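QUALITY CONTROL LOG
STEP: pairwise intake check
CHECKER ROLE: data steward
CRITERIA: each record must contain a sequence immediately followed by its structure tokens, with no blank fields

ENTRY 1 OF 2
RESULT FIELD BELOW
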Amino acid sequence: MHHDPTSPVFLCSKRRASLMSTCDVPPENFAETLPTEMSERIFGELDTESLCSAALTCRLWHDIIEESEQVWRIQCSLVSAVCQREVDSDRRDGLSWKVTLVKNYTRSCLKRDWLRGRFSHVRSAEELRGRKMTPLDAETWGEILQAELDR
């Protein structure tokens, strides 16, 4: 099996010792040379989908992303813009930022779509077939109803 020597997966799988053995060769994986805090800041700039893809790139990236509360807190702040009540409740219950994000991500996307009127003209459940749905609480349905009335 031939590996592309420029692919992130290949670069990330090289051992640190081999990089250090040739001083004139620039480092190929930023996460191997930067302090973890700097790598977390870089990963914190990614959107949720890109962050999940980066976590699949190599073990080092996965470990940094998986263990960083900072990265997950940043992602969760985007979700809390739509689901503040739910995020606050989960955090009060002691859930980590990552678990809070995972628990509320689909809900926030669905709620945002409802509030923007994406489903304003749906006439039957059949029109929602294939759309991922998740339970919403009574307060959320009240917000959605008010948004519909305001349109």
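ENTRY 2 OF 2
RESULT FIELD BELOW
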Amino acid sequence: MGKQKKARKYAVVKRMISLRDQRINPKDRAKAPVKKKEDPSAIKEREVPQHPSCLFFQYNTQLGPPYHILVDTNFINFSIKAKLDLVQSMMDCLYAKCIPCITDCVMAEIEKLGQRYRVALRIAKDPRFERLPCMHKGTYADDCLVQRVTQHKCYIVATVDKELKRRIRKIPGVPIMYISRHRYNIERMPDDYGAPRF
């Protein structure tokens, strides 16, 4: 007669007694949390984010030519794929002077992509592009762009990343530039005179 195989149970954890259990010595026992009584006369403090004054009217009044456009890593790569000149296509979309801005995080991301994306790196180092220094830790470009756009409402964000678009749509007064049908288009912007009408 062979030994009967016992089915092995997964995620079985050894049962432990609570630190407040009566069987533990009183000196080693965890003390019950003491609840502080709330003072009814105390003034309750709430932190309410200040609403920017530029959004007083129907749309963002800080946006105006020359437009400062924050460019994401994948926007440059997709522009190369679609054979679009970044500055010229931006001007064709908005009928105004555009200054593409590249943050240190985006530059670091392009450099990390390696030799295959050397054309994107050369475009990003164009003297017409404005470099924006980053003071925070890490080089995750999406968080950097969202943080910058939340603080300063004077930028348009150029990206084709769905996740980043979704995050920026939650911030009021920030238009998004994207690529569709081999040309640039823009959403949430009233002055997009050159944007294609579908």
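INTAKE CHECK: passed for both entries
DESCRIPTIVE NOTE, ENTRY 2: The two ends are 78 Å apart (CA to CA).
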